[in-house]
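Q: What does the assembly look like in three dimensions?
Context provided by user:
Components: two
Sequences:
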Amino acid sequence: MGNEVMSILKKDYIYNLMLKGKREDGRTFDEIRNIDIRTNVIEKAEGSAWIKLGETEILVGVKLQVGSPFPDSAGEGVIITSMELNPIASPDFEAGPPKEKAIEMARVTDRGIRESGAIDLSKLCITEGEEVWIIFIDIHVLNNTGNIQDAASLGAIAALLTATVPGEREGRGEDRPLPIRDMPVSVTLVDIGGELMVDPDLDEETVCDTRITIVSNQDGSISGMQKSGDGALTEEKLLKAVAFACQKASELRETHLLNI
Amino acid sequence: MSDKPEKFIDENGLRLDGRRVDEIRPMKMEIGVLSRADGSCYLEWGKNKVLAAVYGPRELHPRRLQKADSALIRYRYNMAAFSVEDRIRPGPSRRSIEISKVSREAFEPVVLTHLYPGAVIDVFAEVLQADAGTRTAAINAASMALADAGIPMKGLVSACAAGKVDGQMILDLDKAEDNFGDADIPMAITSEGEITLLQMDGDITQEEFKKAIEMCKEGCRQILELQKETLKNKFAKLDEVEIPDEEEDVSALVESTLEPSEEEEESDIPKIEDAEEDIIDDDEIDDKSEDEESDYEDVEIVEGESSFEDVDEAESPEDEEEETA
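A: Here is the predicted structure of the complete assembly.
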């Protein structure tokens, strides 16, 4: 998958490494690259996080505005998630409106946050049917060395954890922290030659047939899943991926989110 | 929109529309419904009405999009503005772009794209009426349209969704179950049992997910049966039309296929009785191929065919007279 031009030799190289149980950057199959998260890096935003996953760098900004609710959820705030694959991040990215890849990743991130109930949307209603808080989660990809998906999800929840509702600025009462109830964490695995590897780097993402993202919550439940890429998965492999992702997600949550 | 029902499953274990938890909505499909498309399928599934068409393999423009070693699959999932209660704005939305992407990827593992380098296979799925589960309905229809177009595939793809209401896993959500339920898990599964599309949103445990896979597998198996049946029906009928019953005609067909000339692949070539004409035609063809010594057989075949047609038209009344005599 991916748009990168990769020689068959490279594919062969990664495949042969896999046969020996190795990866290009020396990680084991179940090892996630180093993660560094810094929150509140943009003062003008209501919440923000800069995240580095290996060399992949993403900046997530959260803005809140007063707006009107959707007719089918008149008493709830609104979440709008967008992702920009900025041309600054890779020679393969072009400026312009988001393409399917960016839209897919933004929507998977959005579903994870929305479906886990991480944000208590009922507390973001100002007057039912008329005014609610609209939360904009904007994911800005700054450097792509693979697995934007997991970095974006982790960055988004980190930014939300630090976000405030700007009541004073908007003349809607006092400032207060954004009501966060859960911490959904996404874990992405790729299938290369029949082996599952977590947190794919750029080359692995390019040569893999199938990518599977699983978003899970604090209680171990699953709130989102997405298969991506041109391949297929067996039931057995899928269940293995899900079990692994849930366990890995709880590790990530403990080391990187609970201290925010 | 209607309000959330109090209960989705009654004390007898039946759902609001009377289905069991593991029962799919009634489905019917018909293929070859559009005359211009290379393959097409109209599918109704509950209140969903979906039309899928396949064009191709055909030349891909712009050429820079061509893939040197395989055909490109393009999949367009589109909802008609009037397909839902509140009119939706026509044209691609973020939702439809994502669905188009994952649906295309659901077919990548089965379509033998390497047979058509440089070409494109266009799949268009139009949702005419939507009532939950349109992406899976579209995939089922698209799978049939691809088969109808004669696109070589490893097998058919079938799709359905599992979900969760009242804390129970159910198969094939309807609109209310989708809107107010706790999870929606669409899947596409090949005839080999491999999962080529998987999405999920909601809140489920690992055990529930396992149950969802089992349910979807069974649902897809039932859909696959219907898909196979539909294909058999159409192509069995075609057989009846194409093979003439009369003995003489059959022998003529057999004899004409025994003709040594490679160019004569069409079955409607002149019958063996027209010995003179045949010889002339053969000579013509031989001459041309010697002259040109090129691979551009297409051109010659076209010429050859047209001359055959002329002969056919001119001589056919006589043929009949001879035969009856």
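Follow-up: The helical segments of chain B are 94-107, 134-148, 175-180, 206-242, 247-257, 275-292, 297-324.
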